[in-house]
Amino acid sequence: MKIYNSSTAPNPRRVRIFLAEKGITVPYEEVDIVKAVNRTPEFRKKNPLGLLPVLELDDGTCISESVAICRYFEELYPEPPLMGRGAKERAIIEMWNRRMELYLFIPVADAFRHQHEFFKGRIVQVPEYAQLQHQNAQKAFSWLDEILADRPYIAGDQFSIADITALCAVDFARVSKIRIQPEQKNLARWYEAVSSRPSAKA
User: Fold this and answer.
1) How is 113-127 classified by DSSP, letter by letter?
2) Are residues 31 and 101 in the same domain?
3) Which residues contact 136 (CB under 8 A, 6 or more apart)?
4) What are the tens digits of pLDDT across the range 109-160?
5) Which of 63, 85, 167, 173 is 20 to 30 A away from residue 131, measured at CA?
């Protein structure tokens, strides 16, 4: 078993933090995304989309998509629970994790992809769309600050995968000069708590 990883990309980091929270050690194989090794025909046999991370099991099965990989390990190692206990809690955490992906992570990623030199020639860039998503990401920061006014973590009282997704998005946003504002006290308090966890360094 091993995980194909990129140390600089936000999605592989989600998996690394998840595993670190659970105390699970899995070998990582670094894939050079600058040289587009992830886009080669050989790598696309593991993930046709050419994206990271990818978990390769001992029987050759390859699982991509960060949440799917995390789900696999949650099933094998349910403690500590990062995706909830019971139907209600699991659904609530899934709901909040999905919201972090759709309304925070995607705008942050688009603000980067559609204007950064790294993606020139790799995708069709639309600078105007990057500007729009930059604004949407800033709005998401404000919305998240409101949400965190009455709870310590994204999905409630316990640290979960939703916090991991949000943390990776907030950190990645800095590349596009999207930052927590001085008036966003709740978001700043949450960020200080989650970024100081040992797993955040994974």
Assistant:
1) HTT-GGGBTTB---H
2) no
3) 103, 107
4) 999 999 988 888 888 999 999 999 999 999 999 999 999 999 999 999 999 9
5) 167
Among candidate residues 23, 57, 76, the one where a domain is terminated: 76
Q: How many domains does the chain have?
A: 2
Q: Which two tokens stand for residue 98?
A: 């999905």
Q: Are residues 96 and 72 in the same domain?
A: no
CATH code of the domain in which 29 resides: 3.40.30.10
Greatest CA separation found in the chain? 51
**Cα 20 to Cα 26: distance, rounded to the nearest angstrom:** 10
pTM of the model: 0.96
Query: Is there a single domain that holds both residue 92 and residue 61?
Result: no
Asked whether 200 and 159 are in contact (CB, 8 A), the reply is no
Strand partners, 156: 153
CB-CB contact of 154 with 104 (8 Å) = no
Taking the C-alpha atoms of residue 85 and residue 79, their distance in angstroms, rounded to an integer, is 10
For residue 54, the enclosing domain spans 2-76
Task: Pick the closest to residue 97 from 173, 25, 14 (CA basis).
Answer: 14
